[in-house]
Design goal:
The chain is an alpha+beta fold. It has 2 domains: about 5-140, 2-Layer Sandwich (Endonuclease, Chain A), CATH 3.30.870; about 145-235, SH3 type barrels. The protein contains 5 helices and 14 strands. The longest helix is centred in the middle third of the chain and has 15 residues, at about 115-130.
Amino acid sequence: EEPLVYTVKNWKTFLLRAREVAYNATVNLIVCGDFEFVNYLGEIAELKEREGVNTYILLYEVPGITIDYSNLPRVGKLRKYVSGDLVVIADSRVAVVSQRRRGISENPSYGLVIEEPVIIDHIEQDFFYRWIRSEIIRDEPVKLPTSFTVLRLAIYEAQKLRQAKCKIRVLVYGRYVRSGVNCIIEGDLLDSVLEDSRGVAQFIIKVNGNNITVGSQDAIIEDIAASRVELRGVC
């Protein structure tokens, strides 16, 4: 079997891989890093958002690297956190990760290209909890219909849409947890759960009169493990 984690031992090669991963995003794109790294990927991030890709940028502060707020990428989801590593994730399918820069003249000596779903899921969870605690620079509502491979982000955005009195339907691509059979189902959103203490993240939707719980790809207690969800509705 081919390895699912690769080492990149050159800074320029890491940057090229980061651009490639970002460019290939079709559903959602996550970018984390300092101003220079974020700006390096800025045009691609803007392009992806114009193409309908849900694009999230988390900006980190690094000593010696000034943040020029007027030149940040023009995307609808942009926040700032204290510190963190360089990360690009496309569609929960592939990620590139490198240690954070400690200063303007210090670049990481290596990076990782990750295609292992379990590791990517952990990185996405870490990103999500940083995201909801970060300083908002720009936070525009998502435009319906829209798709996510990161269930927590889908739930987070759906909760905000419901607060704005939107009526939401959820289209789920995944598998039944008990049988493992693949499925595609759609239903009205009844409720959603994000509980940090128990690690629970789920949609509750009504399908043909039945309440169905939808969890992430590694779901155990839910009815369906979702690989992708699409939010539809009217606001």
